[in-house]
Structures are given as structure tokens and as C-alpha cells.
């Protein structure tokens, strides 16, 4: 090879590197829903919107087969509840890797392109206390050893997703960023483990929660608006909340001796309901601003021209059974509604085309449950509160899309949510005689009274078992026939 070709080859090498950096925008796919959209439809949704990476929270046996052959890069998750057993048992870690990774893995081709195993789901969240801290490193080490044994070292990397509250800066200045003091020791062990195995640091950044909790950050600053008042940190100028949080983390990493470790933003998004500032149009501004910022490759003041190696938007779909201990917005992070309809427009790689919605979605019949106005409604509010204990009433909260529907419209909303979650069973619209089933859509303005999907979680599980049973029976029958013939 002639020497003067080298610069050109190098140029193309870096060109390709930069391109792949820009493209690394994925999405989180959670399944904490009463009626999850069937996995094959979700995979179609990902493919038709050119989404090339997806992060899961478990290793759902209905989800992974659906991703086979899609060439989508996948992160599978280990729930926090399994960490204890994987810390104490190499065998348990090996079975998990065998059953949930090795069985599906392929590097392209017909299997699942698994890139990461996420050990725990934000095990360091402050509200969990220290219950998972003693198991995380041991579990990660045993999973890593199991991957090596399965010949997957370097192909599948072990990561530990860290919550936004694992690092902080009391003064809001990134230069004063540090890890939460109860995490000092664990963080050093974790970072030592990650760098030894070439794994990046997975972290959640949440400009929404920052503004929700800290009134001193302006909405414009959170939304990447040019007009936002910048925050200065000695000679560094911060123009948006994302850079501020990111550099707070970079500084925390530097403080414990890991200034260069690669960062993956594992969860970042903006909810669309259930709180003030949680609307589709604000969410659109945020996600568009974020994606433009990542595409600009500007990086942050502490890591100029070095943006996160990958970024996973949170989240793909709304999930009506997510915990709401941190706020009613928690069930509304989706770029798409629970049934796969785009709430707003963003560019995931499909260019200027609109997002494609989920196709051929199967719903329950067009029926709703509302309050019967001809009855004595003196106990209706109590009934609605009971319904809301299991149903999803988050849209009724202040700032929510149904906050303004007046009484007894809000009672109907609660009744309907309960009725849909119970697959429109007649007895789930009773409410002591106060419920009434109707075929007239009670939705008003932005307040949507939903009709649930045809497939419930229990449904799909039953179907999977039924399928296995019928396959088994068929096999036995065929064998018997062969034997007798
Ligand atoms: C997006 O994916 C579709 C197929 O699903 C493909 O035809 C199209 O070229 C892709 N667009 C881009 C910009 O990669
Ligand atoms: C984690 O596993 C190690 C090795 O088996 C064990 O010594 C340790 O006690 C475990 N930690 C906890 C907190 O159980
Ligand atoms: C993964 O593997 C373990 C161990 O074999 C098994 O108990 C578990 O059910 C599997 N599936 C998931 C979703 O973790
Ligand atoms: C953790 O680190 C911080 C900052 O470096 C320090 O102030 C704090 O005392 C440490 N906490 C523990 C428990 O070591
Ligand atoms: C609020 O932020 C501004 C910069 O935008 C800063 O000057 C001010 O000190 C902050 N106030 C508090 C109470 O943190
Ligand atoms: C922040 O820094 C910029 C540029 O260095 C400067 O123009 C601006 O006045 C500073 N703002 C504050 C509030 O100190
Ligand atoms: C309302 O509830 C109370 C207590 O459960 C009950 O005694 C009363 O009869 C109810 N009123 C109506 C109108 O159903
Ligand atoms: C609710 O109604 C008030 C007053 O009518 C209006 O100012 C506000 O924008 C409405 N909020 C929503 C979320 O529709
Ligand atoms: C419905 O609205 C009434 C009156 O504003 C209120 O007292 C009640 O708690 C609301 N119920 C629900 C389920 O939001």
C-alpha cells in the first residue's frame, strides 16, 4: 500500500467512526403495562421508524424471540430482585446467561444481536436505600464470568445502569459534582470493574425531574432553547440542563479517578401527562433539542466534541402499571401511546418523514364504562378512589390531560380505566350499581377515554403455554402415528 493513501484511509475510518457515533440513538422498551402491545408489533414499530438499538428491563421470553433476525442492538436487563442470588451463586449466573443470552445470541443473522447485559435496574436509586449495594459488584462479576465461559466476552458487555440521583452537586455547579456519599466505595469498585472489561458507564439523566424538583432551572434551559439564560461555572458556560448534568457526572467520575470512561445515556426523556410541563408539545421540543444537540457533536464543556457513545430515549411506549411513587407522570414517558401511536414527531433516523404508528392494532370492542347519572351519586367519589387504587387515573392529576373534566366526568374516567384494565368484563363496570356500559366515546378534548388492547399480559402468557402444549401434543401424535404405521 502506498504511504500517501494512509491519510485518506484514516479519514474514512474517522468518518465512519463519527457517523456511527451520531447514529447511536436507541430507545427503552419497558413492559410494565396491563395490556402490552404484542412484541412482534413493537418490533415492526421499531423497524419502520429506523430505530436500531433497544434497551429492555428484563429478558422476556416473548420479547427476545420477536427481536430475532431484526439486527436491532439489544440490551437485556436483570431485575434488582435477582442480584442477591447472582452475587452468591456462580451457577445461578451461568444458568441465567445460558437461558437468557446464549440461547438467543447472534452477531447479526437470525438470532438476537445482544450487546449489553444490564445488571440491575438502577439499583442505586436513593429511595431503595442500600438494599442492593452489597450485591451489585458480585453479581456483575459472576455474570461477566458466565459470559466468558459462554465465549461471549467482548461481544456482550456487562453494565450497571445508574440513576440520576447517584451523583449530584449541592451548588448546581458541575465542577463540584460528586457521587452520593453512601456510594463512594461501591462506585470505585464498579468503575474498576467496568474499565477492566471495557464496559461503558450507563447513566440516567433527567432534565424533567431536575426541573420538577428544582425550581431554579428554567424550562427554556431544560429544552435547549437558544434564548435560555446560561449558567456559568467559573470560566465554563452551560447553555442547557443536559450539559450541566452530564458534566456534573464527568466531574464525579474524575473525582474518583475515572475521567475518561465512556458514557452511555441509558435513559433520557420527557413525559407527556400527569404533571405540569408534561405535555406532548414540550416533550417534542425536548427530544428534538436533545437529538439536534447529539447530532451537532459539540459535546459538553468538559468533554468537547465527545458526546455520549450511545443515548437511549426513555421511553418507547406508555406503561399504565409503572410505579407512581415519584409522580403521576411516570406512566407517560412514551414517544408513542400504549397502543403505538406517535404523540409527536422526532427524527430517529427516518429523516424528515413522520413517525410510523403501530399497524393493525387489535383493540377490545368500542365500549366504555361511565357513571350512571340517574343514580344517587353520593358514594361515587369513594368508588372512584377505590377504582383508582388499581386503575390508571394519573391523567386526572393537576396538569394532567383530564384534570379539567368536571365532576362526575372524572368519576367516569376512573370507572372506565378500571373496566378496560379488566378486559371490559361486565362485573368490572358495576361499582355498586353506579356503572353504565356505553358505546358512545366519552372522550372530551385532550382527555382520551381509552379502549384497551385485545392482548393482555396473562393472555399472551397463556397463549405461549398453549402453543407449547399443542406443539408437544402434535409431536407426540405424529410419533405415535409413525410408530403405528
Ligand atoms: C428507514 O427504514 C426503511 C425500511 O424500514 C428504509 O426503507 C429507509 O431507507 C430507512 N431510512 C433511512 C434514512 O435509513
Ligand atoms: C456476595 O457473594 C460473596 C461470594 O459468594 C459472599 O462472600 C458475600 O457474602 C455475598 N454478599 C452478601 C451481602 O450476601
Ligand atoms: C432467565 O434465566 C433464569 C435461570 O435459568 C430463569 O429462572 C429465568 O426465568 C429466565 N428468564 C428471565 C426473564 O429472567
Ligand atoms: C465520599 O466522597 C465525598 C467527596 O469526595 C466525601 O465528602 C465523603 O466524605 C465521602 N463519604 C464516604 C462515606 O466516604
Ligand atoms: C439560581 O440560578 C442562578 C443562575 O441562573 C444563580 O445565579 C442563582 O444563584 C441560583 N439561585 C439559587 C437559590 O440556587
Ligand atoms: C457567564 O459567562 C458569559 C461568557 O463568559 C458572560 O458573557 C456572562 O455575563 C456570564 N453570566 C453571568 C451571570 O455571570
Ligand atoms: C354509601 O355508603 C354507605 C357506607 O358504605 C352506605 O351505608 C350507604 O347506603 C351508601 N349510599 C348509597 C346511596 O349507596
Ligand atoms: C384547565 O382550565 C383552566 C381554566 O379554564 C385553563 O387555564 C387551563 O389551561 C386548563 N388546563 C388544561 C390542562 O387544559
Ligand atoms: C373528581 O372531582 C371531584 C370534584 O372536583 C373531586 O372531589 C374528586 O376527588 C375527583 N375524583 C377523582 C377520582 O379524581
From TrEMBL:
Signal sequence, start to end: 1-24
InterPro entries attached to this UniProt entry = GH, Glyco_hydro_17, Glyco_hydro_17_plant, X8
Q: Which GO terms describe its cellular component?
A: plasma membrane; side of membrane
- Which terms are listed as keywords in the entry? Cell membrane, Disulfide bond, Glycoprotein, Glycosidase, GPI-anchor, Hydrolase, Lipoprotein, Membrane, Plant defense, Signal
Q: How does it sit in the membrane?
A: Lipid-anchor; GPI-anchor
Q: Which GO terms describe its molecular function?
A: glucan endo-1,3-beta-D-glucosidase activity
Q: SMART domains annotated for this entry?
A: X8
- What are the EC numbers? 3.2.1.39
- SUPFAM superfamilies per UniProt: (Trans)glycosidases
Name its cellular compartments: Cell membrane
Task: State the family it belongs to.
Answer: Belongs to the glycosyl hydrolase 17 family.
Q: Under which name does UniProt file this protein?
A: glucan endo-1,3-beta-D-glucosidase
Amino acid at each position: 500500500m502506498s504511504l500517501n493513501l494512509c491519510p485518506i484511509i484514516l479519514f474514512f475510518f474517522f468518518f465512519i467512526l463519527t457517523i456511527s457515533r451520531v447514529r447511536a440513538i436507541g430507545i427503552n422498551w419497558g413492559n410494565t403495562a396491563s395490556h402490552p402491545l404484542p412484541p412482534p408489533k413493537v418490533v415492526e414499530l421499531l423497524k419502520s421508524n429506523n430505530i436500531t438499538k433497544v434497551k429492555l428491563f428484563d429478558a422476556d421470553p416473548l420479547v427476545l424471540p420477536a427481536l430475532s433476525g431484526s439486527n436491532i442492538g439489544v440490551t437485556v436487563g436483570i431485575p434488582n430482585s435477582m442480584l442477591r442470588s447472582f452475587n452468591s451463586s456462580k451457577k445461578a449466573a451461568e444458568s441465567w446467561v445460558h437461558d437468557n443470552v446464549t440461547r438467543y445470541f447472534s452477531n447479526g443473522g437470525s438470532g438476537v444481536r445482544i450487546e449489553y447485559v444490564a445488571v440491575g435496574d438502577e439499583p442505586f436509586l436513593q429511595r431503595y436505600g442500600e438494599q442492593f449495594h452489597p450485591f451489585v459488584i458480585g453479581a456483575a462479576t459472576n455474570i461477566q464470568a458466565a459470559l466468558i465461559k459462554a465465549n461471549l466476552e467482548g461481544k456482550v458487555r456487562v453494565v450497571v445502569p445508574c440513576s440520576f440521583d447517584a451523583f449530584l452537586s449541592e451548588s448546581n455547579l458541575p465542577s463540584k459534582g460528586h457521587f452520593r456519599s453512601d456510594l463512594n466505595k461501591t462506585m470505585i469498585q464498579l468503575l474498576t470493574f467496568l474499565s477492566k472489561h471495557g464496559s461503558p458507564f450507563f447513566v440516567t439523566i433527567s432534565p424533567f425531574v431536575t426541573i420538577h424538583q428544582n425550581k431554579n432551572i428554567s424550562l427554556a434551559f431544560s429544552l435547549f432553547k437558544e434564548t435560555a439564560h446560561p449558567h456559568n461555572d467559573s470560566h465554563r458556560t452551560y447553555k442547557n440542563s443536559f450539559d450541566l448534568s452530564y458534566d456534573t457526572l464527568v466531574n464525579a467520575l474524575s473525582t474518583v479517578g475515572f475521567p475518561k470512561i465512556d458514557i452511555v445515556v441509558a435513559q433520557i426523556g420527557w413525559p407527556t401527562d400527569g404533571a405540569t410541563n408534561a405535555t406532548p408539545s414540550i416533550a417534542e421540543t425536548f427530544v428534538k433539542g436533545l437529538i439536534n444537540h447529539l447530532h451537532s457533536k459539540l459535546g459538553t464543556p468538559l468533554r468537547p466534541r465527545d458526546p455520549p457513545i450511545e443515548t437511549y430515549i426513555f421511553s418507547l411506549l406508555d406503561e399504565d402499571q409503572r410505579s407512581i411513587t415519584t409522580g403521576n407522570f411516570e406512566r407517560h414517558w412514551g414517544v408513542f401511546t400504549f397502543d403505538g401511536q406517535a404523540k409527536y414527531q422526532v427524527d430517529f433516523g427516518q429523516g424528515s418523514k413522520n413517525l410510523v404508528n403501530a399497524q393493525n392494532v387489535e383493540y377490545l370492542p368500542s365500549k366504555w364504562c361511565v357513571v350512571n347519572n340517574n343514580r344517587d351519586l353520593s358514594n361515587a367519589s369513594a368508588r372512584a378512589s377505590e377504582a383508582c387504587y388499581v386503575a390508571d387515573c394519573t391523567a386526572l392529576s393537576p396538569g394532567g390531560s383530564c384534570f379539567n373534566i368536571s365532576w362526575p366526568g372524572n368519576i367516569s374516567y376512573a370507572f372506565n380505566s378500571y373496566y378496560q384494565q379488566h378486559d371490559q368484563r361486565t362485573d368490572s363496570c358495576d361499582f355498586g350499581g353506579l356503572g353504565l356500559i356505553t358505546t358512545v366515546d366519552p372522550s372530551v378534548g385532550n382527555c382520551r377515554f381509552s379502549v384497551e388492547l385485545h392482548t393482555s399480559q396473562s393472555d399472551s402468557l397463556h397463549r405461549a403455554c398453549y402453543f407449547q402444549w399443542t406443539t408437544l401434543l402434535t409431536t407426540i401424535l405424529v410419533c405415535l402415528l409413525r410408530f403405528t404405521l
